Amino acid sequence: MDEHDFVVYHKGDDPALRKAATQAQNTFKHFWYQVATDFNRIIPALEFACVKAPFSDDFSDSDSPVEHMWIGEIDFDGVQIHGTLLNIPNQLVYVQEGDTIRLPLLQLSDWLCVLDDQAYGGYSVQVLRSRMNAQERQRHDAAWGFNFPPPDSVLLPERSTEFEQVCQNLLVEQIAEDSATITQTYEAGRTLLHLMSLYGRASSVRVLLNAGALPTAKCDRGWTPLDYASSLGWDDVISELQPVA
Questions:
Q1: How are the residues of the chain apportioned to helix, strand and coil, as percentages rounded to the nearest 5?
Q2: CATH code for the domain of 170
Q3: Beta-sheet strand order (sheet of 46-56)
Q4: Which domain holds residue 215?
Q5: 155-214, pLDDT tens digit by residue?
């Protein structure tokens, strides 16, 4: 068993970790942007991309153990996070390693992604690292194999304007070759405008709108692209959609 399999127990009312969970939820869109960007890359740039959430056999029982475990292969539909449980539970029986997991964003307790060996996010990880001595922290970081910032800080990954420009250009070409691109629907009845709004890609949203994509189109859930943009607070996307919504 390596460091990734360890489950750290702590008091449920630990104020620092409760604050870390809130910060992770509020910044989840930065993580999701990177994950969604990798959907369009031939070679993924993310070396690691996981979220963490609490699990219990019975949350209504205060004596039932709670384990915070990592979830990989992340997708997000605007309401729920989907993924695969990566850890082996120490005490729980209702979930097992490899199970498909669905949870609301408000149940998230952390997220962590790695680009070029640099760790981003990891709010709870940083709290725990801050409580280690220098030697313990060195062993912890070596086990993960990534570069963490000082334990009193958390890094947010930057958006790639260069990559967005490439996507925008490819989208223009795709629409020119096949105008049905703007009306084609994908999983759950979502159009490209729905997806680009969820991914936070304002430039691609602008291209689709200029090509005639309908901002009032509804997916199977009944959501418009504006609903998807609003689910994560993509202000630049919302400003593109609002004048024509």
A1: 45, 20, 40
A2: 1.25.40.20
A3: 100-104, 80-85, 66-76, 46-56, 110-115, 118-121
A4: 161-244
A5: 999 988 888 888 899 999 999 999 999 999 999 999 999 999 999 999 999 999 999 999
